[in-house]
Amino acid sequence: MDEDVIVLRRAGAPDARGAAEVWLRSFAAALPGVRRAHADDAVREWFAHIVVPGLETWVAERGGGDLVGVLALSDGELEQLYLAPEARGRGLGDRFVALAKERRPAGLDLWTFQVNAPARRFYERHGFVVAEETDGRRNEEKEPDVRYVWRP
Hints:
Blueprint: E1 6-10, H1 16-30, H2 40-54, E2 56-62, E3 67-73, E4 78-83, H3 92-103, E5 108-113, H4 117-125, E6 129-134, E7 145-150
Antiparallel strand pairs: 1-2, 2-3, 3-4, 5-7, 6-7
């Protein structure tokens, strides 16, 4: 496979570690001022035991076999969408959102932090609208957040 080609595919148990690494790198790059609620190893365990086996999880795999993105869906929620920093700005997020809308045609909800202006612009560009803003009391990071909804 060409190293520049990125394939979206369902994640399996062997992908949990790579997906967690994408999440960790992406969170650190995109949200340096947000306190993480869990240590790196706890995030890796969460991906291995909760995210990959329990959610509809997709990964973006570069031709060389490296994972550069992760998407996780529950019934009506886009639970996780994280891209490796070097994979941003290349249309991969657009592909993941299109996939999420295809997999959940009745609509989607998602949460992001209020300080994450790039994510907010991204979701708004894809038709998501603000449904609720909170002071962060209900999330583990205690960071003000915003719930977005998309309905076809």
